[in-house]
Amino acid sequence: QVIVHDVNELTEKLFPIVEAMQKHFSAGSGTYYSDSIFFLSVAMHRIMPKEITQIIQVDLDLKYKTNIRDLFDEFDNFPEGAVIGIAREMQPVYRHTFWQYRRENPQTKVGDPPPDGLPGFNSGVLLLNLEAMRHSKLYNELLEPTMVQKLTEKYHFKGHLGDQDFFTMVGMEHPELFHVLDCTWNRQLCTWWRDHGYSDVFDQYFQCEGEVKIYHGNCNTPIPED
């Protein structure tokens, strides 16, 4: 069953919820009404009908190597308190974004590579447990403008990747809200940061063992042919 949603209608509902965070996580200067759609996942639980309890949201630049049904099984692996399933970012983009916080906190794991570090998240493949999002007092508090402001100040955070930035920053503070998907569910291919100052550490972020289930051709990277 396919249901088409009107983008303008969704944006209208979204804007009041995400307006405050747009100035922290949008590429443009200021807050653009149309930018709200890049924060759809953040507030999906507020605008979708109550009878919809789970949603998988995916980017368009993906290639599936397995049945997408198998990804729905990941909802069963959510630990207590988790509301969103998401894979780690596979480039040192957040090592870069959190540079000031990392300088002030030399012992931090924020921005460090896996398995022990906190490299941030990539929102190309998202499992949204809408029911859990609706019931999580903590998650809904984090959407409040005062909380967004507080965290962006603490981490000196200024991003440009929309929902991905929000989830990454929240994940530094409250990792318990997230079920981390294996890298094979969102095998990102972009290597931009390898050539922009991070070649020495790039491979620590980029490696991914296992049989790829979903390729993600982010930053217009060609996806391997079968």
Structure description:
This protein is α/β, with parallel strands linked by helices and 226 residues long. It has one domain (7-216). The chain has ten helices and seven strands. It has helices at residues 7-25, 44-47, 69-72, 93-97, 99-104, 130-135, 137-142, 145-155, 163-173, 202-206, and strands at 54-58, 62-64, 84-88, 121-129, 178-181, 187-188, 214-216. The chain has a four-stranded mixed beta sheet. Strands 2-7-6 form a three-stranded mixed beta sheet, with no helix packed on it. Helix 10 links the parallel strand 6 (187-188) and strand 7 (214-216). Helix 1 (7-25) runs parallel beside helix 8 (145-155). It is globular, with a radius of gyration of 17 Å. The two termini are 29 Å apart. The mean pLDDT is 95.
Q: What is the strand arrangement across the widest sheet?
A: 1-4-3-5
Q: In the residues, how many domains can be counted?
A: 1
Task: Outline the biggest β-sheet.
Answer: 4 strands, mixed
Overall pLDDT: 95
Radius of gyration: 17 Å
| Low-pLDDT stretches | none
User: How do the SSEs run, as a string of H and E?
Assistant: HHEEHEHHEHHHHEEHE
| Apparent shape | globular
Protein name: XXLT1 xylosyltransferase
Pfam family, one: Glyco_transf_8
Keywords: Transferase
GO molecular function, one term: xylosyl alpha-1,3-xylosyltransferase activity
